[in-house]
Design a protein that fits this description.
The complex is a heterodimer of chains A (499) and B (249). In chain A, 50% of the residues lie in helices and 11% in strands. By secondary structure, chain A is of the alpha/beta class. Chain A has two domains: 308 residues, Rossmann fold (3-Layer(aba) Sandwich); 72 residues, no CATH class. Chain A is elongated, with a radius of gyration of 27 Å. With 249 residues, chain B is of the alpha/beta class. Chain B has two domains: 117 residues, no CATH class; 118 residues, Rossmann fold. In chain B, 51% of the residues lie in helices and 14% in strands. Chain B is built from 14 helices and eight strands. A four-stranded parallel sheet of chain B has the order 2-1-3-4, with helices on both faces. Chain B has a four-stranded parallel sheet with strand order 6-5-7-8. Chain B is globular. Classes of the chains: A alpha/beta (499), B alpha/beta (249). Chains A and B meet through helix 1, helix 15, helix 19, helix 20 and helix 21 of A and helix 1, helix 2, strand 2, helix 3 and helix 4 of B.
Chain lengths: 499, 249
């Protein structure tokens, strides 16, 4: 069986780590034509988005906005005093018997984990789902060092087995259907083909149970770090996080520093929002609160607990007065589920670990704006993401901010920048606007067919008519009509027919 | 009530009939309507595309043009959101214009909002009758105004009008200004999804109160062979009150 994950590729390039700068259209243009992919993503996201709204309405009604505001303030307060809460967390975690490591970047995070594995003679590792471990590519690092590592989240397990990559923050295999899972199990595990979800889950469970027993080390992420107690909070639905954190003798929790909250009281507020925003559950099925390793009088639990605090660009992001808001993100995935672009192109089109609207902000910040110029631009700014965000990150506003940054750094082509300058210049004077709009009306109307549609537009309109027709402008503008008919009309007069 | 019309560049050029309908309805409701001729564009394309300085310049121009207006009404939710939400932020550091931007934001209304929240109109009392089946697309920027679904109330007051719900109603049509041109495959696929929902509704008319969405939806439906007519709610009301003949020119 192939547990040494092959690098996952999309037409020869790594799905989540493509060559940079990344051109989104190379993938998204194909994705929009992949009906199976779109149907899978559309169905899953629409269900979750609808259920999310219903559950919040039912649980909190009109108080939902107040709850979001509170969550926003809790996260923002913690970020504003991150050094204070980090120190507090480290003190309390160490007092509880945990070992705390600080990793400045991805390489250091992996070095720390490999160091632990080496010291402890770890040969087999089980791993729960965690975005930050995807970000630092920990799985690859462990495998390369000869530590047999298995993803235990059902979705991630299937992806690992099938040589595929996650495409959603919460539901990593949202882009796959049951049949492909059945085929992967048949091929890689020797199981009889089935596409029944229960049967598939049973096959995976059988396989995984044995792996938990044999593993020396368990790796998890962490949804929250509680400064006041030094605890790591891990939320999972399958209980695999609990197994990873308790069965092997060494538990390593790899967590981004932005996950801190002051106390349990604050974590409780965010827990009310996290699972509801993700999957419309009041809470995830398992919420593990891990404070130190196994104590002397306890039967279960790891002998060692290591907490690896990962920076990897976060303190730099914290110094950005506008974009720092993205650090409030609790990785619930609600903005992905709400996003019509994500639903249309799927997660792999983003060419990065973090996808969807929040990914379009976080990825350029962590990996360089000039490396991902499409992500902030490939949005209709419809606002569904901002509305869905449980910690009030104004995602559309931040996308616009990054577009300004792209222009300031002259990433956009010179032709485009010039076109916009000309456009703005025209609009600044009414007479220029009048003449330019006359010209545009004339050109487009000449190209229009008998029904009044342009099927092949010139210049900047070319993109439009690739996929849609363009309604031709009116023969007479409103302002011309007003000038002819209304300008001198006494305003008392009531029109009965203005046609 | 003295009302100044902010026509918006798209309605000015593509949908002048919407402007005529807005004028007719507002006058019918007793408003004195004027059209400040120096208006051009609110600056939203520049703002959305990351040219904040140019957007701010157009914001200043628009504020100057409407300086003496009591109320500003526009038939577009997105241009209204631009004025109300983004003008104050864009000009926050301009001591001369910051207070004027806030004043402009406070007196600017989207057409439906103006009817329901300011004039408190009940179309039943006015005897508005429009026979036909429609479905309704909400422009995304109504989200920013807290006015999603606001037009339902008015449509329900129109005698003879049957409102069929549109599937995935609050889903963006994919317009997004320059997004439609820069990412035509993504934007076009979103528009195709919208056209599919419209076709499934089997309504011959789509009520859509935003010029950008209307152009996009009309063009997507045309390309996909979905035969449908786009109408602004102002046109429905103007026709329903007998202020305009039915028709689309």
């Amino acid at each position: 069986m192939n547990e040494q994950t092959a690098p996952v590729t999309h037409e020869g390039e790594r799905v989540l780590f493509p060559p940079l700068p990344y051109d989104m259209r190379r993938r998204s243009d194909a994705a929009v034509k992949d009906d199976a992919l779109r149907a899978a993503v559309e169905a899953a996201t629409l269900t979750k988005d609808t259920a999310r709204k219903a559950t919040f309405a039912e649980a909190f009604g009109e108080r939902y906005d107040a709850l979001r505001g509170l969550a926003e303030r809790i996260k923002q307060h913690t970020l504003d005093h991150l050094d204070y809460y980090l120190d507090q967390f480290i003190d309390h975690a160490e007092a509880a018997g945990a070992t705390v490591h600080y990793a400045a970047d991805a390489a250091e995070a992996n070095r720390v984990c490999l160091g632990i594995a080496e010291r402890e003679g770890v040969r087999a590792c089980v791993k729960a789902k965690s975005m930050v471990t995807e970000e630092v590519r920990l799985l690859e690092a462990l495998q390369a060092a000869g530590v047999e590592t298995l993803e235990t989240d059902l979705g991630e397990f299937i992806l690992q087995l099938d040589g595929d990559a996650p495409s959603h923050i919460v539901t990593p295999m949202i882009h796959k259907d049951r049949a492909s899972v059945g085929r992967a199990f048949e091929r890689e595990l020797g199981a009889a083909y089935t596409d029944e979800p229960d049967a598939l889950t049973a096959i995976a469970r059988e396989h995984l149970r044995d792996k938990y027993r044999r593993a020396d080390m368990g790796v998890t992420g962490g949804n929250f770090l509680v400064a006041g107690s030094g605890s790591v909070v891990v939320c999972t639905n399958e209980g695999n996080g609990t197994f990873c954190a308790s069965t092997p003798r060494v538990h390593v929790a790899v967590v981004g520093i932005e996950k801190l909250v002051p106390t349990f009281e604050h974590a409780a507020v965010l827990l009310k929002l996290l699972a509801r925003s993700s999957t419309a559950q009041p809470l995830t099925v398992y919420t593990d609160i891990l404070t130190g390793p196994k104590r002397r009088d306890e039967h279960d639990g790891p002998e060692q607990l290591h907490v690896v605090l990962v920076d990897n660009g976060r303190t730099e992001l914290l110094a950005d007065p506008v974009m720092r808001d993205t650090l409030r993100c609790i990785r619930c995935g609600a903005c992905l589920n709400a996003c019509p672009v994500y639903r249309t192109v799927g997660g792999h089109s983003y060419g990065a670990v973090y996808t969807g609207p929040i990914g379009a902000l976080v990825t350029p910040m962590l990996k360089g704006l000039t490396n991902y110029p499409d992500l902030p631009q490939a949005s209709s700014l419809c606002g569904a993401c901002g509305e869905a965000c449980p910690v009030n990150i104004d995602i559309p506003h931040l996308l616009v901010h990054l577009r300004n940054e792209l222009n300031a750094q002259r990433v956009a082509g010179r032709a485009e920048r010039r076109a916009f300058k000309l456009y703005a210049w025209v609009l600044k004077k009414p007479w220029r606007y009048r003449w330019a709009s006359r010209l545009v009306r004339f050109v487009l109307r000449r190209r229009a067919d008998d029904d009044g549609y342009v099927t092949r537009a010139p210049g900047p309109g070319k993109g439009w008519t690739e996929t849609r027709d363009l309604p031709a402008p009116a023969k007479q503008s409103f302002r011309q009509w007003w000038k002819q008919n209304k300008r001198d009309e006494p305003q008392r007069h009531r029109d009965t027919e203005v046609n | 009530m003295n009302v100044s019309l902010l026509i918006t560049c798209l309605s000015d050029q593509f949908y002048p009939r919407v402007g005529r309908a807005v004028v007719a309805v507002l006058q019918h409701l007793g408003c004195a309507v004027d059209f400040p001729a120096a208006q051009t564009c609110c600056g939203q394309p520049m703002y959305n595309s990351g040219y904040a300085d140019d957007a701010a310049a157009l914001a200043r121009h628009t504020i100057d043009v409407f300086e003496h207006s009591a109320h500003v009404v526009t038939p577009s939710g997105s241009c209204c959101a631009m004025v109300r939400r983004h003008y104050p932020a864009l000009l926050a550091d301009d001591p001369a214009y910051a207070p004027r931007a806030r004043a402009m934001a406070e007196k600017t209304y989207e057409f439906v909002e103006y009817l329901t929240r300011v004039l408190d109109v009940d179309l039943r009392e006015l005897g508005c009758r429009w026979d036909g089946r429609v479905t309704c697309h909400d422009a995304c920027h109504l989200r920013e105004l807290g006015a999603m679904g606001e037009s339902d109330r008015l449509l329900a007051q129109v005698e003879g009008l049957e409102h069929v719900p549109l599937g995935k109603r609050d889903r963006c049509c994919g317009f997004g200004g320059t997004f439609a041109v820069k990412y035509p495959q993504i934007s076009g696929a979103m528009a195709g999804d919208k056209a599919g929902c419209i076709a499934a509704s089997e309504a011959p008319t789509v009520v859509c109160n935003d010029g950008g969405c209307a152009m996009h939806i009309a063009g997507a439906c045309r390309r996909r062979g979905v035969s449908v007519e786009l109408k602004h709610i102002a046109e429905v009301i103007a026709e329903g009150l007998g202020l305009m003949d039915a028709g689309s020119v």
